[in-house]
Design a protein that fits this description.
The chain has about 200 residues and is of the alpha/beta class. It is built from six helices and six strands. The protein has helices at about 20-35, 75-80, 95-105, 125-145, 165, 190-200; strands at about 5-10, 15, 40-45, 110-115, 150-155, 175. The strands form two sheets. The chain has a four-stranded parallel beta sheet. The chain has a two-stranded antiparallel ribbon with strand order 1-2. Strand 5 (about 150-155), helix 5 and strand 6 form a beta-alpha-beta unit. The longest helix has 23 residues, at about 125-145. It is globular and about 40 Å long.
Length: about 200
């Protein structure tokens, strides 16, 4: 029996199974529900987090398990803290929806260069950078044609080598950076980055 050939996912550039495409569609639908009509600040990360519990737009009760992650919604929690919003709950659907609605109301939207989680074998260092570099033209086109934010805050250290390309990308929006570098919300101690991002947002 010949091995099943995998198509390349247009959201992340990785070889993708049917399950991968289904998960991408589910996350895309959840994020679209809370996308502002006019995006004031686009938060840009490197790769969508692997665990549903760490993905900002996962809705309560939708495959969420509070014990499935070392810290519920690490990226989401740090981002919400920087915007002055409370952390999300894995079980309280109404509270989670209200927080995401307020995030949307403020004109905030989160996206990633890789719209899907990076494969575990490619998820660090040069491999992650190469994936992001390959997907960057697609991201730039999406920002120009569809998202059209007023400002873009880069929140992942993994994107630091791509900052010059983002600056030269004719995106029609200024980049919010930490002294020329991304805000490291994934740092071991994210508190300084959270505070700097909070100040940059004004």
């Amino acid at each position: 029996m010949s091995p099943v050939s995998l198509c390349e996912c247009d959201g992340c550039g990785q070889p993708a199974s049917l399950e991968h495409f289904a998960n991408r569609l589910k996350r895309l639908q959840s994020a679209t529900r809370f996308r502002p009509v006019h995006i004031q600040v686009l938060f840009l990360g490197a790769a969508s987090p692997p665990a549903d519990s760490d993905y900002l737009y996962t809705e309560a009760g939708d495959s969420l398990n509070p014990s499935s992650s070392s810290g519920l919604g690490c990226e989401a929690a740090h981002l919400l803290s920087a915007t002055g919003l409370p952390a999300l709950s894995a079980t309280d659907a109404s509270a989670r929806g209200a927080i995401l609605s307020e995030f949307q109301h403020r004109g905030f939207y989160l996206t990633h260069v890789l719209e899907c989680p990076a494969d575990a074998t490619l998820a660090s260092g040069p491999e992650l950078f190469d994936l992001c570099k390959r997907q960057l033209p697609s991201l730039l086109a999406r920002i120009r044609r569809s998202l059209k934010p007023k400002r873009i805050a880069v929140i992942s250290r993994a994107l630091e080598p791509l900052v010059p390309r983002l600056l030269a990308g004719d995106l029609g929006a200024p980049l919010l950076l930490d002294e020329g570098r991304p805000f490291g919300l994934e740092d071991a101690d994210p508190a300084p980055a959270i505070e700097k991002l909070r100040r940059a947002l004004g």
